[in-house]
Amino acid sequence: MALASLALLLLLAGYAALCAVQPFARCRTCSGTGVRPARRTVKLCRRCHGHRYLLRTGRRLLSTGRDVHRAGTRPHFHHRNPDREPPWL
User: Fold this and answer.
1) Measured between alpha carbons, how far is 34 from 23 in angstroms, rounded to an integer?
2) What is the DSSP string of 39-79?
3) Is the dihedral of CA 57, 63, 67, 73 positive or negative?
4) This prediction's pTM
């Protein structure tokens, strides 16, 4: 059981590192071409809208968590005069 937990943690750490280094992955629908063949024409891929890359799920979760944290914390104010008290005290 401990070995399975360790393997899962290593897998998640590897995926987190991949999301940090390469936040975008090739679109699986169009194989990274940005287009899909239609009868006699070529159309843009519906999934990636012709951009060829999609944001990874892990990176999307990381960005959402960071936005939620940023929205729920007070802004940090820098004062020019260190002797003066901040306005919220």
Assistant:
1) 18
2) SSSEEE-TTTTT-SEEE-HHHHHHHHHHHHHHHTSPPPPP-
3) positive
4) 0.64
